[in-house]
Write a structure and sequence with these properties.
Structural class of chain A: alpha/beta
CATH superfamily of the largest domain in chain A: Type I PLP-dependent aspartate aminotransferase-like (Major domain)
Shape of chain A: globular
Radius of gyration of chain B: 26 Å
Strand order of the largest sheet of chain B: 2-10-9-8-7-3-4
Number of helices of chain A: 15
CATH class of the largest domain in chain B: Alpha Beta
Shape of chain B: globular
CATH class of the largest domain in chain A: Alpha Beta
Largest sheet of chain B: 7 strands, mixed
Number of domains of chain B: 3
Strand content of chain B: 15-25%
Oligomer: heterodimer
CATH superfamily of the largest domain in chain B: Type I PLP-dependent aspartate aminotransferase-like (Major domain)
Number of helices of chain B: 13
Order of helices and strands of chain B: HHEHHHEHEHEEEHEHEEEEEHHEEHEEEH
CATH topology of the largest domain in chain B: Aspartate Aminotransferase, domain 2
Strand content of chain A: 5-15%
Largest sheet of chain A: 7 strands, mixed
Number of domains of chain A: 3
CATH architecture of the largest domain in chain A: 3-Layer(aba) Sandwich
Number of strands of chain A: 12
Distance between the termini of chain A: 10 Å
Largest interface: A-B, 209 and 209 residues
CATH architecture of the largest domain in chain B: 3-Layer(aba) Sandwich
CATH topology of the largest domain in chain A: Aspartate Aminotransferase, domain 2
Chain lengths: 487, 455
Amino acid sequence: MHKDNQALIFELTKEGRIGYSLPTLDVPEVDLSELLPNELIRTEAAELPEVSELDIMRHYTALSNRNHGVDSGFYPLGSCTMKYNPKINETVARFPGFANIHPLQDEKTVQGALALLFDLQEHLKEITGMDEVTLQPAAGAHGEWTGLMMIRAYHEARGDMKRTKVIVPDSAHGTNPASATVAGFETVTVKSSDQGLVDLEDLKRVVGEDTAALMLTNPNTLGLFEEQILEMAAIIHEVGGKLYYDGANLNAVMSKARPGDMGFDVVHLNLHKTFTGPHGGGGPGSGPVGVKNDLLPYLPKPVLVKNEDVYTFDYDRPESIGRVKPFYGNFGINVRAYTYIRSMGPDGLKAVTEYAVLNANYMMRRLQPHFDLPYDRHCKHEFVLSGRRQKKMGVRTLDMAKRLLDFGYHPPTIYFPLNVEEGMMIEPTETESKETLDAFIDAMIQIAKEVEENPEIVQNAPHTTVISRLDETKAARKPVLRYYEGE
Amino acid sequence: MKHRYLPMTSQDEKEMLETIGIDSIDELFSDIPEKVRFKGEYNIKPAKSESSLTKELAQLAAKNADTNRYASFLGAGVYDHYKPIIVDHVISRSEFYTAYTPYQPEISQGELQAIFEFQTMISELTGMDIANSSMYDGGTALAEAGMLAAGHTKRKKILVSRAVHPESRDVVRTYALGQSIEVIEIPLKDGHTDLDALKEMIDENVATVMIQYPNFFGQVENLKEIEPIVHEAGALLSVSSNPLALGALTSPGQLGADITVGDAQPFGIPEAYGGPHCGYFAVTKKLMRKVPGRLVGETTDEEGRRGFVLTLQAREQHIRRDKATSNICSNQALNALAASVAMTALGKVGTQEIAKQNIVKTHYMKQQLKRAGLEIAFEGAHFNEIVVKTEESVKQLNDRLFEHNMIGGYDLGLSYDEFKGHVLVAVTEQRTKEEIDAFVQEIAAKVKEAGATHA
């Protein structure tokens, strides 16, 4: 084993050490053989670590030191809205009255939690311009599938069984087509125009009586606002389809344009993006779905309602698509999002969008001389540069991304959307200062210069991280997905 | 607009507008058509200062009856277990909780290694070859097991035991609807899956049989008897399992499960009104390339150092798009970390001890209830839950318990018509003898009353 390897927790194990403090057994001891059939009593213990509490803390502290978060430094990862995660959110979510309540408790013992959820729904209705919101989906993709299942139920309830297709733009997030498949639809791709927007002519070509829905982000994944959104809505609605809003990019349009007013019938939000539920290293998220009135009957069960001043769950929903998740969604993330919205207020949310968009445009204009900018117009909260100029000099976007690590930055999203060659998708968010943006821009400009003068330093990057580039082919060819002692 | 999360000053704004070459921020929104432009501000509550909002929300939280103040006998899939205090300290390290999915491995080794360790611990407990990096929760993980099985076997029927959590069964049905998969329920016999019925129902169209272990009623299903029935028909055995119980029970892997899923909430994750928890998904090696969600694999860097990367990504939505095996993207990474820390703290010895305490304390509750004249519905082997027939409505019972600072069990009549007047009582290691005795005393009060009337 290499001397610089970071130890696995299993390698720190020593028989006889413990890291727990269980209650003393205060009832009479009984041998398990008296209570369980022999073949169901475990004879081979799970090989879990045997370490002290300090061992645990040192181990995970060492791991955290090998990890970059928003609190470590700038994280302009396009499409992910890596904004600051307010600390009050963490405090509030840990209040015993929120953290230590059971989902099946009598409703009258959790009225505070239900009041919060109901008020969050009311706020999200206003923010999205939709008629009703469910907080049940656990994440964005889960919300997409939930929304599509509702659209499916809507069509089927009308006896309209031929709507088998969901249209997605070629620039869409990968979850869109995947969610369509899981909901039982076939995916049809609509092309983008040379303006970076949905090609209306192509849309007219692909729509028809088999169109169940068009899934769209607006602004789209290039960070551009789909100006012809009303025309698109008309095209879809005319053939009887529904318009689905992927809310991944909502940070760009709060208080500027609401999906409900743009003609969208179903919306999902990513509370872990726009509304600061932390990303947690990949989750948990929360993906509420908003709908217009005609889709109301199909909302997943149960629906939270308010009668007089009492909050209760309504299970009597005969046309509902059913349950999409046990219990009522990722409550802890919903508490965080609610805390954030209440911290910002209406003027705060407006400022969020304005500064997010100002930051993105500022960066785009300062970087424009040094990289190719495929779509030269005002962007919204993010923009996409192309590294094709640098590629001609033998340096790929991947190399530049790795070089950014040496400057202490998390790189932008790369090679996405798929319709930009050597794409770099940059989303600064509103919580970053001008000084931070300037320092990052300077680093990007220096890298562009290095590509011309000293490409090796970029091609061989990173040079300062705890580990250099990893052999991903090896990882995939002979997968090692768990620790085996002795190997 | 000044706000502690927004560093923009008017000077910054002026300079930035100049660089862009515009006069006002509004111009940046000129591409939004007039017809859809939102004017003004949202009609939502005004912003509150940090301290006043904290106070308001603390008061709202205090309206809820939490397990710090009440002794809970409520389980039904979510449990009040020992949460090692160190768990919250680890997951509060913001290098973890403010990071995104580890797509840049050079600066995400901490998260990647933590997930690799999680995968290992889940594999160990379940006795499966491979575990993924987490799912949303136990219910959706079971639904994904159904989809995996249908895809793998090219069969369109799922048999799910009625002893599987009712809400999980509901989720399985919703997912199955999307895939046009038929879901049929296997009836119960004495609080277990009816194996005679299973034998009659299973055929060559069944993709998978879903069993919960221990089941929704706390009973330990005999997987050893179920396994051959399932495999003889060429179906996959999907087991939904409380991983904490596996400290004492023979692992599903050893008993022949093809897919084992469940929720790691019992390991250090707060009940949090039902979420976020932490689904897990484990399989045999032959199903490795069909697993939904992210997988972390070991590899080496250019200098030969061990490192970890997201791997086998060709299964996933961002590569396969409409051909992906699942649409999952965000998972429950931070809670997988929490569960890892709890599993590490409990360790090899503590996971056995905690599981045993649950069984023994539940046994104590069962004995005391019987002694007090109550009827226990099922006499089979149990983990940490039992079903008790009540002399009054479960609601009446729970209201009374609540007055004595106890949260009663789950009213089975809500999900099973045949079990009206039955309560599912959970006893974890957290419940003291004193609390158990107090619970028994309350529930027995009505038995005495009934006895007195009958006499």
